[in-house]
Amino acid sequence: MSCTGCSTATGGKPAGCKSNGGCSTGGCNRMNTYDWLRNIPIADMDDVCKVVEVSFNQGSRKDFFRNTYLHSFEKGDLIAVEGVSGFDVGEVSLTGEIVRLQMKKRSVKEDNPEMKKILRKATEKDIELLHQNKAREPEAVIRSRAIARQLKLEMKISQVEMQADGRKATFFYIADGRVDFRELIKIYASEFKVKVEMRQIGARQEAGKVGGIGSCGRELCCSTWLTDFKSVNTTVARYQNLSINQTKLSGQCGRLKCCLNYELDTYLDALQHFPEGCDVLQIAKGNAFLIKKDIFKNLMWYSLPDSNKQYPLTIDRVKKIKTLNQQGIRPEELEPVEVISSKPKEMESESVELVGQISLRSLDKAERKKKQQQQQRNQQNRPNPKGQQGGQQPQQNRQGGQPNQPRPQQQQGNPHRGRQPQGNRNPNRPNNPNRNQQGPNKNPNQGK
């Protein structure tokens, strides 16, 4: 999911990331932030930000580290930082003044004494050790889940993150309630020979760590840019006139989609112009019940109990009927408006697809016709038996079914009666003495 600019070299450096700025898609590193303050010159070197944002595990976890020795780092550099009883290796994600804005967003103070420090740039030995310990993570996930199942704990191990030096492992788990994992930690420590840290996360955080593609066709918001997870309920869908379908409204985490909150404020502002307390309108035919509100056309749709048809009313008409009902007056009709669709009419294409119109019966008919034509061609090309004229086939008698015998010459008024056209007869061919004599006026080229 990397951007196309990463493969284009500009001045010997990748155009999409590294020292030329952040990747806007977030494909190279999750939760990327574009450094739009990079080209601003620094006025005072003493006031420069001495904190660097470092990402771990392809951006699924980020933390801030103090650049004590003021090393010059660029985005994408692998550095060694302080860890638990050792060191860890991470990737530089942000440097400079943009880090202060990120710290303010996450409520982290720059002068925090507990902030860990940057040790050095990662060496080849550090990177090799990192790859060795990262290769242990998939096996650790499988083994840790089996142990938790044996202890009958109501929890799910989502991910295991190993420290670069292999001295510590963080187990991310999901649970509905509190879990007593004191015995579990002892087994994990003896099994994996590491210091164990258990960290509980929610279903949305798990989806952000795993990643994926949403129903919109884009990468999940929780794995690219969303860090604040607000509660989402079905009331949000009702405000937006969405059908309460749990399958369509749920994301990959099994919870309601976070994007339902994106347009909620716009809908709430538009709904302020609609009158309240108009769920039921009284007319002469009966009570009309409110079905939905269309904020784009400023219409309110009502239905009557004796009909399944829905009637669109304007806001002014609804207010007028409500005022009449308060005075004890029931109007005769709802006076709905006519809704004209703004969708352009689709023009029929000139070419018509006939594949779906062919039936099996027509195919069988065409096959039978083809076989009959083939049989006729075979009969015409069959060699003539002795005593028959060229190309002439014995005709079946309609009554007895026997082939018609040639009539004597005295009874034939027309010498060509009962014969088939002889289109392929050669006029230069010598006369057959067994053949019936033709008249003197017979044109030898007749029938060509």
Structural class based on helices, strands and sheet pairing = alpha+beta
Low-confidence stretches: 7-27, 387-403, 408-418, 420-424, 433-448
Query: How many extended strands?
Result: 14
Please write the string of helix (H) and strand (E) elements.
EEEEEEHEHHEEHEHHHHHEEEEHH
Q: What is the CA–CA distance across the termini? A: 75 Å
Largest sheet: 5 strands, antiparallel
What does the model show?
The protein has 448 residues and is an alpha+beta fold. Among the domains are: 4-122, no CATH class; 132-207, GMP Synthetase, Chain A, domain 3; 274-326. Helix content is 24%, strand content 17%. It has 11 helices and 14 strands. The chain has helices at 98-105, 124-134, 137-150, 182-192, 203-210, 221-224, 234-239, 246-249, 264-270, 315-326, 360-380, and strands at residues 9-10, 13-14, 51-56, 61-66, 78-83, 86-94, 118-121, 156-162, 168-174, 195-200, 280-282, 287-294, 299-303, 310-314. The protein has a 5-stranded antiparallel beta sheet. The longest helix is centred in the last third of the chain and has 21 residues, at 360-380. The protein is extended. It starts with 8 loop residues before the first strand and ends in a 68-residue tail after the last helix.
How would you summarize this macromolecular structure in one to three sentences?
About 25% of the residues lie in helices and about 15% in strands. The protein contains 11 helices and 14 strands. Helix 3 (about 135-150) packs antiparallel against helix 4 (about 180-190).
